[in-house]
Amino acid sequence: MADIIDLSLVANARRTLEKLLDTRGINYFLKVDARQPFRLDPTRVDLVIRTAAKLGKSAGTPAPKAYEHARKLIRRELIRRVVGEMLQVGL
After folding, report:
1. How many angstroms separate the CA atoms of 11 and 14, rounded?
2. Which of 2, 28, 56, 61 could crosslink 24 through cysteines, CB 3.0-4.6 Å?
3. pLDDT at 1
4. CB atoms near residue 9 (< 10 Å)
5. Distance from C-alpha of 91 to C-alpha of 84, rounded to nearest angstrom
6. Which residues in the chain show pLDDT less than 70?
7. What is the distance between the alpha carbons of residues 60 and 86, in angstroms, rounded to a whole number?
8. Which pLDDT belongs to residue 36?
């Protein structure tokens, strides 16, 4: 059986992520921990998805699988950007 993913949630999450990155920067999404300086803060990632769900035009809450799919995509994008920053710094 095929799963249906709400792509509007993903699109809204990407727009929300871009806005937050423009205003707050990549450091907003990182945990403050001296031992693991480039670790993503899962609460900030979930904040992006929750905000995108609120901004969406759908009547109800998104399905759990759609929420999880959007969360994975946002995490991947943030990881890609963190790695890019690390390469620029020279780590």
Report:
1. 5
2. 28
3. 56
4. 23
5. 10
6. 1-6, 34, 57-60, 91
7. 39
8. 74
- Please give the pLDDT value at position 58: 60
Q: What angle do CA 85, 89, 91 make, to 5 degrees?
A: 95
DSSP assignment of 9-75 equals: HHHHHHHHHHHHHHHH-GGGGB---SSSTT-B-HHHHHHHHHHHHHHS--SSPPPHHHHHHHHHHHH
Distance CA 53, CA 55 (A): 5
Q: Whole-prediction pTM value? A: 0.83
CB atoms within 10 A of CB 31: 13
Cα-only R_g, the chain: 14
Q: Please name the amino acid found at residue 54.
A: K
Q: How far, rounded to the nearest angstrom, does the alpha carbon of residue 71 sit from its chain's CA centroid? A: 6
